[in-house]
Here is the input.
Amino acid sequence: MNPECSDYQHSLKSAQWLQTAPIGCTFGVDVIATLGWRRQAEHLIFTDIHADLKTQISISESQVRHLYYNQYLPLLACNERKELDRLKQVSTEFGLLLSLDGLAPEGGEAQLWTVRELRTGLTVRCGWMSGQDQVSFENFLTPIVDSGFRVTEILSDKQRGLLPAIKALFPDAKHALCQAHYLKNIAKPVAEKDEAMKLELRKAVRASVGTLIRSEHVEKPGVLTVTGLLPSSTEASVENCTPDMIQSTSDKQTDERDIVVESIQQRVRYLLTLKGRPPFRLAGVEMYERLSEVDSCLSAMLKAHEDVRLKELHVGVSLALQGVTDTYIELRQAADWLFEISDILEPEDKPMRTGEQVRQELQTHIEAIVQQSEDNLHLSKITSKIKKTTDSYAPGLFHTYDVEELPRTNNERESEHRRIMCQLLKTTGQKGAVRRMIQRSGAWEAIPRPDTLSQTIEDLAKVDPEDLRNERKRVRNHRNRFKTHTRSAKQSQKQLDKLREQWVKLAA
Here is the structure.
């Protein structure tokens, strides 16, 4: 010991030891990485992970859970930050291309937002926002500006508070807006009118032939096919049949005719359950067109053979269709316009176009459909909405054609959020639990993991201890927001007693 040494009386920790286990942790990085990998990559529940680990080491299930949230997830975040120098290099050479998206809040809770750099796939910012106004977004994005990064392009949805925030913080960056959201927005008036027509058509069909299409051949009234130890019979039952029905079952030709009639009934019954997915899956339009096919089929069948049931079904479906034909014609025209707009924006199988060329093509088309709809009140309202929405999106709708790396949609971020939710659902089996876990650890769950278990162990072993300490503190600070979120009467009473004691001490 040399008192003149600058590190005199300072304890120096072994670098090799630090790469074996985090400071203060009983378990090594290999154990932490293994349980984290099995949780995220193999979607195992903590009970199964513990059952596997306890055959090799002495560990409890609560320790497995604690290591995952308080060691593994923070280590992943620290490992991601090792790429900061690479991000700075990309910023200097090319400029950053950022993609922003949020996961909708549940039950009034904060909204999870992710900012990814698209050229590298690195997580620039990932965390919760309690508001979505301009000030909130500026506070969320300001650290990117303060870090000195050069941002050249940004892709996001058209949140009201986000637009002015990006304009204020990144005035020189091109702000691209998601084309998928644009198409959904211009389709709103079409989708609303389509839904109304679908309900009207369904109601009309059920009113005229509801009893007929609900009836089907059953083993016994109220019972369809049954399996298990006591399965349903595979033979046709004549129980509860009228003498005429019993006679018809012995007639092979009549029996086959019954099968055909029942199949048509099943088709109509199914078509009444269709659901839409705008902008391109319009359930009302699809229901009308498919029922029209059934109607034509019924007409041809009746010309070949008369049948009371088919005739009743034909009359009912025909009357229902006639009641909404005018509405369908308008919606079919509007749906075609949506497809045409989507095709203009689609770059595949087209010559290379600049953003300005696409803008001009889209503008010309919209002016044309506005003129086409002038004599129709309903269609003119739809085209007016399309034009207004397009003008609103236009400043950010065409950058993707000039910047090769810039996607047309923000669907990749949304896919990431769905992946997180699916992953958590596989490991919990409860949607309620998934919502709670996203609020408690979603930002850390969104950090990408290494490709293999061996690479995970190697990368996590190199994490700086001080960085890990700070990250674990972030985890604790965030999870403290939920320490009073318990439905256990015993636990809640214990928490209240503790708070009361703290308050009394402060008052004294």
Observations:
- The first strand starts at residue 96 and ends at 103.
- The radius of gyration is 32 Å.
- Residues 98-177 form a domain with the Nucleotidyltransferase; domain 5 fold (CATH 3.30.420.10).
- Confidence is low (pLDDT under 50) at residues 237-243, 245-250.
